Amino acid sequence: MAERSTAAVDVADNGGDQPLVADAAKATADGVDTQNGRAADGPMPEKDGERRPAASAAAPELHSGHKLARRYRLEECVTRLDGFSSWRAVDEKLRRAVGVHVLPADHPRARTVLAAARSSALLGDPRFVQVLDAVEDSDLVYVVHEWLPDATELTAILASGPLEPYDAYQLVSQVSQAMAAAHREGLSHLRLTPSAILRTSTGQYRIRGLAVNAALRGITSDTPQRADTEAIGALLYAALTQRWPYEDDAYGLSGLPKGVGLLPPDQVRAGVHRGLGELAMRALANDGATASRQEPACTTPEELAKAVAAMPRIRPPEPAFTPPPEYQQTTYQQGSYGRPPTRPGSPLTRPIPVTPPPPLQSRTGRALKWGVAALLIAALGLGSWQLADTLLDRVKGNSGSNGSSTQPAKTDDQKSSKQSKPLPISSAALFGGDNKAGDVPKAVDGKTSTTWITQVFYGHANFGNLPAYSDGSGIIIDLGSVQDVTGLEAEMYAAGHTAEVRAAAPEATSANSLSDFPEQLSKLGITERKLVAKPDEPVKTRFLLVHLTKLPASRDGDGYRGGITEIKVTGLVD
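and the corresponding structure tokens:
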């Protein structure tokens, strides 16, 4: 889709996750992208059915250090234009970086922006950069969103060259699936530019500005699904060719030659993956562009996602073999032990054999050997006699006058009438977030054929770094009454969880938050297929928490997913 931009820079392209200091006023006047330090793309013709009202109100006068709601401290202005500003900020309550869009309450698009932000926040899909807050406060309206310091814009990635086929496949697959899910909920993006796509350090793609960036710019469309599908096609085309699929240069990419129309990717760059090139053309089929002759055009993200799924899956490239560094032999391994040092340029000399000293052959030597042997024999005999005498004394001392032997002393476990046995579990509940709570009983039903499995999270192993999972997730076990717990064993859905087991105080009548479980029964660490907690002493408690802080990679390699198959608790029972 030919992207539209005004003389000022779009926040979707510049409200990024890499902080830059910029003169906001100059950026507004000159049309400079304060995020990337480049001239903003020139105006492009608006598409049919797309409307952008003119902005009116000026951006609020804010500065670094200003606080919103006594919580969000503005750190650095990323963009200031078109009546709004975008900032990198700090959430002082949760001690994390966030992004903030601010505009006056009387801005003509303020209500639209608030509505778009709240709708986007309700989606809760981890493939999108999450909206954390949307507030109207006196004379300001502001939207707070996630800030991903480890993510890189697609703009920066394409600046170094086109993507490999596997990376391009992952891009179109993840973005089309995410947008299909958004459209099913009635949400569109309308500003899917390379700067709106972020790739995390784990290779996952995140989309920022869903609904919000278009609302900030006042962009609407009569055919939102068609517009977003064409935009995904343009992203794929750019990823394959490092060229923007229209005549005008945009987003740091050169456009196509003027007057030739939309060229297939393999005519722009040699070696383009044929299937992906045809897919890009099918998504870009609009305004006279020609789709693949064999397949119909894709007009919705859902159709595009299905077309991607129907392709033969592109496997990641084999890792390149890196030979180990040259093995450095030691002097001994090089065979020079016992050799004289060799001067540079001189021929190697043969090793000089080291002659051991001759054995003692004299009378004195023989006498010394026999003397040492005799002393050793005497010492062994004396030690054996003393050991036997000690054992006899012990037997005599432990024997009574009637000749009966005493029984060994009872251990602490034998003194107690209680034994460690499996404890019945009264109930189980979900801890943290909204993570398939209805399946939690499967982890305590005594069956290994049923499992509580989390949803798939993208971008980060710590549950997608979503605010709802700031304390992780897991399962809370209720034993029904205070018990002497001696251990807990949890069979995990897969190896690689970062997990621990915690216990509530014995006087607790309920336990819901992490602070309700002060006692740690096992150290937090990466687990195998079983998580085992065995405290040194029995722990009195009613509530136990199997606490998960990070998930392993999902079995299909797309995102992160974990779970628990079965939990067993043991304790002292009469």
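(Above: one complete record from the training split.) The longest strand covers residues 473-492.
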